[in-house]
Write a structure and sequence with these properties.
Length: 285
């Protein structure tokens, strides 16, 4: 059963309600099934929540996401004096399974069609050093929620989305510190430095002193793309920079990047970006 809450990169969640609560005596979480997702952040004390039979004890400084449509409840285990923030929100309807699970690669500055075609799995439960700033951010969201102003709910939803993205980054950042992640970053750094020339797998392997097949496997597992795909996009980034900043024609730009056949350069460009270099250049002005 899927209990994680997912966002998509192209649409923000719509906040229904946001607030803060404190209990002085014994308290049990409501027994209910909601048609929206829930975010909790415990400031003091602790709370117990059971979601479809899975028990969570949320301690001070920890958060929890509850998925809409799942039955959740609690027993009277709240510590007196427990306080928490909550955000109730609707996630955009989409076929999450059809979207990429990987974010666009860092360093791809130009727009590519798949930049927003991915989903974001929010960290179900836990904490990180970044959580120390959550209370101030949530107070600001509540203040905006209660203040009558134009576009208030949209602004609240955007700020909640930003908070969730930062939370996701903080939690994943503490986990993605292993060897595979480090290797992928080294590969990307090399590709970015050599984006103005054709790719050579043997040179990359020697540079990192690792077998290329191993590098390729690790990179795809970490990024969802092949090394050659990433290198091609970085080369096209360079091409777009030259289109914007020089008067070089398309053939000259391709030549500078190691595409000695202008027709091949145009074909690769259109395959990745959906239009020819000439058509793409016309959009700048």
């Amino acid at each position: 059963m899927i209990t994680d809450v997912y966002l998509t990169a192209d649409r923000f969640p719509l906040v229904r309600d946001v607030g803060y609560h404190r209990v002085e005596g014994t308290y049990a979480h409501h027994d209910r099934t909601l048609d929206f997702d829930v975010f909790f952040y415990v400031v003091e004390g602790n709370m117990q929540v059971i979601e479809e039979g899975r028990e969570f004890f949320v301690q001070e400084g920890e958060h929890l996401f509850l998925r809409k449509g799942l039955h959740h409840w609690g027993e009277p285990f709240f510590t007196p004096g427990t306080s928490w923030y909550w955000i109730h929100f609707d996630t955009p309807a989409s076929n999450v399974a059809a979207l990429n699970e990987y974010e666009p690669l860092q360093g791809l500055g130009a727009y590519f069609p798949d930049h927003y075609a991915y989903h974001i799995r929010l960290p179900k439960h836990g904490s990180s050093p970044w959580h120390l700033s959550l209370r101030q951010l949530l107070d600001a969201i509540i203040h905006k929620f209660r203040e009558p102003e134009a576009n208030a709910m949209t602004l609240v939803s955007i700020e909640a989305y930003a908070l969730f993205l930062q939370l996701n980054k903080a939690m994943l950042g503490s986990r993605n510190s292993g060897r595979s992640d480090a290797i992928s970053k080294q590969v990307m750094a090399y590709l970015a430095e050599h984006a103005d020339r054709p790719f050579d797998s043997e040179v990359l392997g020697r540079h990192l002193n690792l077998n290329y097949s191993y590098l390729s496997s690790v990179f795809r597992r970490e990024t969802g793309q092949s090394i050659i795909e990433a290198h091609t996009k970085l080369r096209l980034n360079k091409a777009i920079e030259l289109m914007r900043g020089t008067d070089l024609n398309i053939a000259e730009i391709g030549e500078r990047l190691g595409f000695h056949n202008p027709f091949y350069f145009s074909r690769v460009f259109k395959k990745i970006l959906g239009s020819s270099p000439t058509e793409y250049r016309k959009r700048f002005y």
